[in-house]
């Protein structure tokens, strides 16, 4: 594994095309993009052009629409949980506001877990962790996956998924099945499992997949500063030593991750 910083990525000015609340603290933010197309599982650093914070916030791509005309402008959509000054700034943006985007960054699902697939797969998202899983669903052939979404309460971000493929669980029982999403998943039914969410969920899922010999791929979350492998502030401990979430991940094989939780 290379320890040198990853290649410098493009930072481009972009224009916000929409920002709306999905729940009290979850927002969908859309903007123009004329750089390289991202793959599902990659992320960008986002920073409003007028900002009181120094660093961009890392957000997974929820959806990418390529350019459809000579303008060369595609559209990126992100979902974000507003939980600090930087993310509340992003949540408050309006159409026409300017943003700086750096990316696409990190290793995609397909870079870590290449196709072909030999059977159906399970996509498992917990909370805001549904975002990279929904992006992956858009890259998979219809009918080849089941989507498991776990939420504390009201679900969000699942509009683009085929309803028949969705198993939803909420801890308060307000929608879908009452309970935790792993209560309703049997990994052995699938040839591969992909997941993103809170670390205890990922750890429990990794253990079950290992016990049932089902390959499992997870997208990890860490605080990020540079996003390009230079600051070493996003360490993920693995069986192969410390790795940088921003360039060696965020997608890892579950069996190699040493979990904190
Ligand atoms: S090394 Fe700086 S954010 Fe990963």
Task: Give a written overview of the molecule.
The chain folds into 2 domains: 95 residues, Beta Barrel (Elongation Factor Tu (Ef-tu), domain 3), CATH 2.40.30; 148 residues, Nucleotide-binding domain of ferredoxin-NADP reductase (FNR) module (Rossmann fold). It is mainly beta and 261 residues long. The strands form 3 sheets. The protein has a 7-stranded mixed beta sheet, sandwiched between helices. The chain has 4 helices and 15 strands. It binds FE2/S2 (inorganic) cluster (FES).
The stretches of 5 or more residues where confidence is low (pLDDT under 50) are 1-7
CATH fold-level label of the largest domain: Rossmann fold
Bound molecules: FE2/S2 (inorganic) cluster
Got a strand count?
15
Q: Helical region count?
A: 4
Features:
12% helix, 34% strand, Elongation Factor Tu (Ef-tu), domain 3, 261 residues, seven-stranded mixed beta sheet, 4 helices, disordered N terminus, Rossmann fold, binds FE2/S2 (inorganic) cluster
Précis, in short:
The chain is built from 4 helices and 15 strands.
Topology:
Blueprint: E1 11-21, E2 26-33, E3 43-48, E4 57-65, E5 74-81, H1 85-91, E6 98-105, H2 109-112, E7 121-126, H3 130-137, E8 145-151, E9 166-170, E10 177-178, E11 192-196, H4 199-211, E12 216-219, E13 235-238, E14 241-244, E15 251-253
Parallel strand pairs: 7-8, 7-11, 8-9, 9-10, 11-12
Antiparallel strand pairs: 1-2, 1-6, 2-5, 3-4, 3-6, 4-5, 12-15, 13-14
The chain binds FE2/S2 (inorganic) cluster.
FE2/S2 (inorganic) cluster (FES) is lined by residues 224-227, 229-234, 244-246.
């Amino acid at each position: 594994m290379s320890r040198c910083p990853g290649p410098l990525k493009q930072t481009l000015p972009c224009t916000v095309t929409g920002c709306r609340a999905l729940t009290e603290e979850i927002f969908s933010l859309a903007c123009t993009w004329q750089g390289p197309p991202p793959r599902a599982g990659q992320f960008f650093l986002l920073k409003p052009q007028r900002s009181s914070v120094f660093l961009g916030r890392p957000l997974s791509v929820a959806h990418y629409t390529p350019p459809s005309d000579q303008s060369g402008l595609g559209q990126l959509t992100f979902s974000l949980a507003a939980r600090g000054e930087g993310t509340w700034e992003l949540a408050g943006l309006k159409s026409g506001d300017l943003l700086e985007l750096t990316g696409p960054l990190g290793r995609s699902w397909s870079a870590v877990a290449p196709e072909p697939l030999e059977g159906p797969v399970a996509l498992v998202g917990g909370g805001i962790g549904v975002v990279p899983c929904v992006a992956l669903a858009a890259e998979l052939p219809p009918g080849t996956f089941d989507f498991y979404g776990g939420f504390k309460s009201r679900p969000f971000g699942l509009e683009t998924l085929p309803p028949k493929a969705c198993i939803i669980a909420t801890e308060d029982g307000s929608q879908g099945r009452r309970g935790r999403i792993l209560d309703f998943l049997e990994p052995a039914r699938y040839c591969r499992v992909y997941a993103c969410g809170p670390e205890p969920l990922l750890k429990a899922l990794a253990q079950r997949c290992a016990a049932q010999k089902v390959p499992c791929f997870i997208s990890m979350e860490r605080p990020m500063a540079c996003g390009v492998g230079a600051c070493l502030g996003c360490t993920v401990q693995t069986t192969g030593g410390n790795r940088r979430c921003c360039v060696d991940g965020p997608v890892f094989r579950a069996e190699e991750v040493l979990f904190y939780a």
